[in-house]
Amino acid sequence: MRVALRPSPTAKIVDRVMRVVLWAIALMFVVVLVLFVGAILKQGWPVLNLGFLTKMPETLDAGGGIKPQIFNSLYLVALSLALSLPVGLGAGVYMAEYAGKGRALNFLRLCIETLAATPSIVLALFGMIVFVQTLGWSFSIRSGALTLALLNIPVITRVTELSLLAVPRELKEASYGLGATKLQTILKVALPYAATGILTGLVLTAGRAFGESAILVFTAGTNASAQFPDFRLTVPGETLSVHLWYVTSDGTLPDAREIAAGTAAVMILVLLSLNMLVRLVDRTIRRRTR
Amino acid sequence: MPDAPETALIAAPACRVGDSADSRVEANPSARTPTFRQSRAHRLMDRWANLAFLACSLLVVGLIGGILFFLASRGLAAFLPMAGNTGRTLAFSEVFLSADWAPSSDRFGILPFIAGSLGVTGLALLIAAPTGTLTGVFIAKLAPAWMRDLMRQVMDLLVGIPSVVYGIFGLTVVLPLVSRTWLGEAPASGFAVSAVILAVMIVPTIVSLSTDAFESLPSSLDEGAQALGSSRWQAIWHVLIPAARPRLITAAVLGLGRAIGEAMAVQMVIGNNPQWIALMRESTDRAPFLRALFTPAATLTTELVQELPNTPAGSPWNNVLFAMGLLLYLMTMVLILATRRLGHRKEA
Amino acid sequence: MQIRFLAQTILAGLLLATAAQAQTVTVMGSTALGPIVKKAAEDFMKSHPGVQIAVSGGGSMTGLNQVTSGGCHIGISDVFATPEQDKAGVKNHNIVVQPFTLIAHPGVGVKTLSAQQAEQVFTGKISNWKEVGGRDQKIVRVIRPESSGTRAVQKKAILHDHDFSKDVLIQDSTGAVVTAVATTPGAISFVELEHLEKNKTRIAAVAYNGVACSNEAVKAGKYPVFSFGHAYTNPAKLADPKVKQAVDGFLAFILGAEFQQNVLKAGYLPVDYVKSLKTQL
């Protein structure tokens, strides 16, 4: 190792300078975020009011709201989570508890990583070919929810696996020692212990699905149902993020810019509150484990 | 790894995990408690559960294959006279080795998009990898607790902001600002602004992975270097960064993967000109590189978002677009395999 | 406990999926025509309570692809069907007239372009506004992607089928085009007339051959740059007579005198206005 025994004067200066540089880089990201969020909220703030959140959108005139888009966002996120949670949990449990440490696990992990890294536009193409075209489901909530689930599955799997691996071995051993089967141990000991970790992961997954647009443009469409609330799975379901993209790019509405600004602000606010939620969950866990 | 320390519990022979469970229960019936009754039904359920969990995992494996199959069924139709090809059958060379993209005039060179994707992600990585790695080392080794906490929140938020919001911010705020400030009001669309926005989007990935990498290094490394009299920065530069290098490279590769697949944000700011290579070639500019930074260009993802909904099914045009999707997917796989190789080398 | 909750959620979802559905006509395609067709659907559903009309976007060719394969009942498009789709038996209905206009950044200092100047601006022969009597400023050509219907009209009517210059800025949709023109000094583009009217404060109109685009000019035959909005059906795939009746009723409603007057409010022209004109795009 080429390390001097005592820092030379130049080394000291370099050290000082680099500390300042590192602080500067870190603070730069803080500033970027504050400016970014600030700009979005500032643009959107004048638009945000109860009417905007609770009115139906207009097709040609100014003054429309985003009520069905809010509903569709929540509905699609909930559906996609409901679809992906069993698969993700199952695969995560398998990887943590059953797969052992051989080639099979390695291959599984490779698949999960690949799915996690697959660009959402590629998932969108897959959803479009399979659900929209081959199955003939057209742009609909069900096409969107199923494709969106593909985005969630790898994240949930990974979070489940990691949370289960973090369960102290003593706990499981104790459970086996009491005569429990593997399934009983997993369901009644390991999963409850890992639940908070999985929950945090779920909230983050929900946030990601909430902001996703590329997938939904090609599978759920750019229109919201004229009924409210419309629980049917066969109607197109435009979400907030798709609405934001569509309104900005289409621009047939005279107040498109205001609506885009308001929608962006709503999305940022939802994101901020989701992050608060995660921190809250995190803090309660820490307090409990202490 | 959460490998628990050896404890008295593990040492006890009755507590072995696995198939010995059955015999254990018979041998020691007093171990039964009201909560854990191990009847035949329970054992059966156990077996079914095993299968169910396996099925979930196989589903994931099946998905990887399924995506490949369906994308290939449309993407390869551009080059083969198969079902789903109602037009001319193209040669590989006229698609992958040509920079001439004019589909309505029957010319299908996708080099501009491949080069565009590589160019913009490369630039983004050039910005994000050093800053992200340094931020990682800052969080792991230098920052006080409050700053560490703050940075973690900042990164969580940056990664959570939807790409459309980034795109709109770029389109309505950054582009006009750059154009007014530095370009004498010439349009700012192109690689430069797209790469900066992409960099902000992938920095959280790199930061969080490199923070983990530095935190997982044994503290003896750091302490050893300092005991030998090196400054904090010397320890970081000469000891910690080399030690963490394989994982840092993995972090950068995963960031690259995220960047190359990003569609909506880039599409709004890059200018989407598929003729950008030809334009650059014709240009007589004295600073071609600088000019390229602010020339409207296009990438694989932006072209897909724009053209796919408006091309007739079965036409060579439509099929080539799916082939571009297939290419993106294969690129992802290569990147993931690359991170694997890096991981193995680390262990070796 | 979690698993039980999950099972309940999924079950509820499945039950909702199988819930009874009304007579539904699906319309897909052009995002440009979407709003006007959506408005028609709202009005039509008010007078025909038994019918549901679901309008979704996706792009002109998506609409045509889907109507050809039977994936939707009506495909709306701002381009004509391909020869293959015609062969498959799709049927065209012209539902509205769509006038197009040249627009520019307000600072360029040019109010009109001759047909030849307009062609040369977009083919790249003219690249500075001072060559056409404006400020000394580089021309920034903002156009739509190759697959766009607007671009097809522009290529035919303005460029007379010559190729676009390679030095262009491409935006995915009219809204993005308008934003780009409004924020980029020296920019010029080509959009549907309605977008000019809605963004008069941000962008400037450029007359074509001395004639400013307006409904009256198109009606009088003085302004030649317009196209039709199309609604395609595929009679071979409309097997269910109830659906066929609803589809025919809806198209008749759009073409009826009452709704054709309504399209004026949305920036389109009734089809009747140009019946006598020879220009066809």
Short account of what is shown:
The complex is a heterotrimer of chains A (290), B (348) and C (281). Chain A is an all-alpha fold and 290 residues long.
Summary tags:
heterotrimer, B: 348 residues, mainly alpha, two-stranded antiparallel sheet, 15 helices, 2 strands, C: 281 residues, alpha/beta, ten-stranded mixed sheet
Topology diagram in text:
The complex is a heterotrimer of chains A (290), B (348) and C (281).
Chain A (H helix, E strand, L loop, with lengths): L8 H36 L5 H5 L12 H32 L4 H15 L2 H15 L6 H25 L3 H9 L4 H30 L2 H6 L20 H11 L5 H34 L1
Helix pairs in contact in A: 1-11, 3-6, 3-8, 4-6, 5-6, 6-8, 7-8, 8-11, 10-11
Chain B lengths: L7 H4 L9 H7 L12 H36 L16 H5 L4 E2 L4 E2 L2 H32 L2 H16 L2 H20 L8 H25 L3 H9 L4 H29 L3 H6 L6 H7 L5 H6 L6 H8 L8 H32 L1
Antiparallel strand pairs in B: 1-2
Chain C lengths: L1 H16 L5 E7 L4 H14 L3 E8 L1 H10 L4 E4 L5 H5 L3 E14 L7 E2 L1 H9 L16 E4 L5 H9 L10 E3 L3 H10 L3 E6 H6 L5 E5 L6 H5 L6 E8 L7 H15 L1 H9 L16
Parallel strand pairs in C: 1-2, 1-3, 5-9, 6-7, 6-8
Antiparallel strand pairs in C: 3-10, 4-8, 4-9, 4-10
End-to-end CA span of chain B: 18 Å
Low-confidence stretches of chain B: 1-34
Question: What proportion of the residues of chain A form beta strands (DSSP E)?
Answer: under 5%
Tell me the major beta sheet of chain A.
none
Instruction: Evaluate the radius of gyration of chain A.
Output: 24 Å
Q: What letter string, H or E per element, gives the SSE order of chain A?
A: HHHHHHHHHHH
Number of DSSP-assigned strands of chain B: 2
* Helix and strand composition category of chain B: mainly alpha
Q: What is the tally of helical segments of chain B? A: 15
Average pLDDT, all residues of chain A: 89
What topology, given as strand order, has the largest sheet of chain B?
1-2
- H/E series of chain B: HHHHEEHHHHHHHHHHH
State which percent range the strand residues of chain B make up: under 5%
Number of helices of chain A: 11
Shape of chain A: globular
